[in-house]
Amino acid sequence: MKALVFERFGGPDVLRYVEVPDPERRPGSVLVRMKAIGLNFADVYRRRGHYHLAGSPPYIAGYEGAGVVEWAAPDVPHIRVGDRVSFADVPFANAELVSVPAERAIPLSDDISFEQAAALLLQGLTAHYLMNDSYPVRAGEDVLIHAAAGGVGQLLTQLCKSRGARVLGLTSSAAKREAALQAGADEVLLYREDWVSQAIRWSADGQGAHVAYDSVGSTLMESFAAVRSRGAVVFYGMAGGDPPPVDPRMLMDTSKTLTGGDLWNHVTTRESRIERSNALFAAIRQGDLRLGEPRRFSLADGSAAHGLLESRAHAGKIILIP
After folding, report:
1. Model confidence over 271-292: pLDDT tens digits?
2. Among 3.90.180.10, 3.40.50.300, 3.90.1150.10, 3.40.50.1000, what is the CATH number of 2-121+267-321?
């Protein structure tokens, strides 16, 4: 099979599209002929060497995608050859064939395309647990979303709006502000502005947001300043650098809550993967979730796709087509 690999860490130029052995056929797994693969910043970090990689080169990145089952192990009775499946947490996805543990295979109905699944699942599942688990958003609440033009930000905005919340987005440029508004944000502020005081004034009662979803990290204390007494800050990323230390006495004095979030602590079973994914698919059918048109690259042109993602010049999802 063909795969996008790298043998040393570095820029997009280290990626090569080469012939590699097919994955092994293992008990409890299925082989999936890939139709669409999601590209994420985690793939960039792996290529740069920021994450520990098991095994030896050549390395294959990628964790998200969708395709058709080409082989199923005898001990996997609930998945058959020809089934359409997707996944969000299976390694070595940047290839024509991927070995998928059966418990991580998410059934894909005919009305959801392979490209939709590859563009949705990783970021969509993140948005889903943030809104339902980290802080259960309620109708009428004021929600502050960092990086609102990003993949998770746009999906989180739409899901919060579908629940009846008011959404204030934060972005770094006028173009990204427009993207966040198109995703449904009620208002969008730029980071270069005095966004904390503006966020407080924007809130319905002038007391600040009920919750701030912070994926930037370095903005953590500003997020606390922008939420009301008894409000919450959900920290789930460090795109702008490490967060400062938080004094628990400040949390006590202001009755504010800090919680962290990581998708893999919330999606731990086959049942939870399927339940949350089906909720996202239902939101698409109902029109509560609209996916922007992804930018497509052939898997062979993965180096160019990585370069575009790394440049941060593209606000939407990038997918690779084998």
Report:
1. 999 999 999 999 999 999 999 8
2. 3.90.180.10
